[in-house]
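Re-run with default settings, no changes from the original entry. Doing this only to confirm the output is reproducible before filing.
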Amino acid sequence: MAAWLNSLLQHPLTKGLAVDDPETTRRRRAILRSKPFLRCLYREWYQLIAQALPHGEGLVVELGSGAGFMKDCIPEVLTTEVQEGLEGIDIVLTQGGPLPFPDASVKALVMTDVLHHINEPRRFFAEATRVVRPNGGVLLMIEPWVTPWSRFIYTHLHSEPFQPESPNWEFPGQGPLSGANGALPWILFQRDRPQFEQEFPQWTITHVQPLMPLAYLLSGGLSLRSFAPAWLYGLCRWLEQASPQLERKNAMFAFVILTHEP
């Protein structure tokens, strides 16, 4: 039933394409440009990230820039991708490899919908610890989150794996987008938070803000048709934010800030 519904609602530009094909990312860029409601949502994400950037020297590096437009909102950001041949990407990274930046040269690593695709998070956080400056450098991310509502949506109406019960942080490596555990950020920063803090004492989880029980669903994301016009975005977000407790308990995403301590 879920597969049939996904097929029915899938955006026509992405039908028949493999998710790891760079052409899929190009078409998702076109989808993002063509969906004003979704652009409003991404712009809000980028504004949250921009407002949390630390002062001082250092690079601002976006991981997994993909179909997004963060550089429009944060002009100084260096965009990166593991897929080759994509326009507007400053640096092509090796999937799972070291980050090509000197020690303590980055003041902010930022990402949207990326961490849950990193199949060896311990290796990633070791690299982040190396490249992000101590004394206030940050890791900023907006990622899927686990609530009863999101668990239902991600399990039944989303194509990526979503496994909150997974005992491991790691998962099998596949392509840059096909490999995933959508519950990984929640596992790291909530379920297994004491373990994360023990393994990575250099990082302090300074902020976790659950977000958007309905907005992303109404937008259709980058794969599905849109269910709402742009003028409805402000009203939707007002309704979500009018009850902070309701938003927290039913969030589909979270804005997470990690600060690199000395």
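Residues 116 and 184 are 5 Å apart (CA to CA). Residues 2-260 form a domain with the Rossmann fold fold (CATH 3.40.50.150).
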